[in-house]
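step 4 of 6: structure.
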Amino acid sequence: MSGYSPEEVLGKNCRFLQGPATEKNKIMEIRDAIREEREVTVRLLNYRKDRSTFHNCFHLAPVRASNSAHVTHYVGVQMEVKSDELEQIESEEQLARQQCSTVVEAPGPSKAEVLAVSAALSSQRMPSTGAPDSNPPVTSSVESNLLRALNRVAQSFVLSDPVAPDNPIVHVSQAFLDMTGYSADEVLGRNCRFLQGPNTDPAARAQLAEAVREKKACSTRLLNYKKDGTPFWNCILICPVRNAHGEVAFFAGVQQEMKDTAANGVKVDQDAAALVPPSMPPANKLADSHQKAAVGQIRVAVRGLATGGLTKTSSNELPAAHGAAVA
Amino acid sequence: MLTITRVPTVLSLNQLDSPEKDAKKADKGNFGLKDIVLNEEGLADARLPLYYFLCRKTSFLSKKVRSFGDLQTVPDIDQDSSSGDESDQPRSLFDHTLLAEWENKFEEGLFRYDVTACQTKVIPGDYGFVAQLNEGRATKKRATEFRVDKVLQDFDDSKFNFTKAGANEVLFQFAPNPNEESGFEEAAPVRGAASMVLINVSPIEYGHCLLVPRITDRLPQRVDHSTALLALQMAAESNNPYFRIGYNSLGAYATINHLHFQGYYLMAPFPVERAPTAPLTKLMKRRRADCIISRLQQYPVRGLVFEIGKNLDAMAGQIGMACEVLQTNNIPFNLFIVDCGKRVFLFPQCYAEKQAQGLVPEELLDTGVNPAAFEICGHMVLKRSDDYVNLTEEFTWRLLAEVSLTEERFQEVVKLCFP
Ligand SMILES: Cc1cc2nc3c(=O)[nH]c(=O)nc-3n(C[C@H](O)[C@H](O)[C@H](O)COP(=O)(O)O)c2cc1C
């Protein structure tokens, strides 16, 4: 249908099918469905390898791992719609609009096909195609449609649930795991104080405790320990984060390891640190700006709105399946 | 002369009457920056953050599109992969800078209220209009008369303008750099009439900022080729399709006659972005190399859509030309820039004029919604809790439909813009 070979397709984002005349609002629909992890059907203009165009009735559905809410794959089913069919469909749609009635859902094979592929994927755990979307690590118990945006924050951070007893961590970033050496299941559900150790300054800790109690922001530097016991200076920023209802939904904590370099005056003597508290390194402007940007990104993401699929989008359903692709 | 009476929205703390302002200004200091204002004298010795962008005036297609794809492949923060294995470099230095600086101001308590504490939701229906309850935006300021039948007005230094804003409201200077990549300096001297990005102290979403081109040139609210380009360049610097930029002309709910654009992040689609588009009509259909111009369909407000063709500069030329026509013909309008600068909506409008003539139904006026760029595109900011709770798609549609020119008038205006 598209004229591409498997090698040209695998591992790529399917947007290579799009071209100058592809409807932007349809791309928007797909983008939103992916962000919100839901199904969508749109009809849009696509381009073959030879740059000729075809009308593609595209159905996309998230596939979740059999026992979790995490989306492991997306299935897209493409159906070419011939132009005479298109005209007929368009005039029917036009008519339907004029009559103010909803378009009857065509019982096309597309949905059934998606379901079949979905079932196959979630039961067998098909091998990854190498696409970056596959097999995201389970690092979170936040709503799955928030995950995508959170996964884009490069910094080390955790989100905790301020309503649950003792502020347990409900989301942890990959960078946090890389930095500390812990795995996600060792972190989720615990209070972040497990990073502290014998030489953590009690004053800094008290500062954090107060901020959490008062639901306020706080930034400080304190000695933390990695899983293997290595001490490091952690420049930590914590703050309450509100959701679309305006309520504090999380506490965010953004960590920045202050590396041991002469330039920034950070000194962590491994042996000494185990015995005496080393002196606190000076604040670092660059680290601060990275942390603030991460907090901003988290705030925008947590206030994100899901449209849950508008009624209008479903009126594009069309018959005649032609091919299936797993992204 | 047509006027409407309204309480102006406070974009800068120095617009506030003294007691309210003093209360705010007593907040945590900012190295005395709050005492410096953004005029020549104040800026002579000031050092302010500087964001400089690769000037991709004409190099847009060759530079950017190869690596990220052009509009056909709307750069998409959600679809692009980021598997954590990349460097800790943010995807866009611009987004990084804006978010970090904005968060700083947030922490300093410079905003009149915490916008993240405002409730927001998608209204059920076909379009997904977004509603927000914002009770903090109102002020105790006295209502003022605004002339709505004069789109171009001379700059008046006796009225509030951004050269009177405090330097602590500056997020960064925004300057082109013809040679190198984008970059950031923490504190740089201000050279000539620099363009500035300031916070909006009455934000409607996170990151709400004001782009004031060549601030000390004291340009009135008026769009031309070069200023349209600057706004597009700012949108293009962001790599985030959820950051949009809007513009309101005088008579279309701008309250400050000092050239400014506004932008903020909203992680949800604007209904207008979903609306289908169609070539103007067979007669007027034009597909120029500069950009593709079409019109919105199935949307309550009639509007034109510009899509990038050759490059940003060529598109800015077309937009600037259309705006100049509207301005000289005294037709109020709003602009809305989406898709990182690759798509722009233009709405000639007549709501304020109708309002001045007493032609807008009471129930619509009662909500206090001023249909400026963001509202027209589907983000409804409400001041009263009842309105927020009860807002429906049908009501929103009715309100926005009042903003629109009639079909006949719209066609006339299109002909004016593209003879
Ligand atoms: C979201 C969040 C992230 C945190 N991250 C860290 C951290 O990285 N390192 C640390 O030592 N403490 C961190 N803390 C602080 C501890 O969890 C705890 O609040 C602090 O030790 C004070 O409470 P305590 O005296 O009861 O231990 C974090 C707190 C929150 C709410």
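step 5 of 6: annotate
 - The domain at 138-305 of chain A is CATH 3.30.450.20 (Beta-Lactamase).
 - Chain A touches chain B through 56 residues (CB under 8 Å).
step 6 of 6: archive
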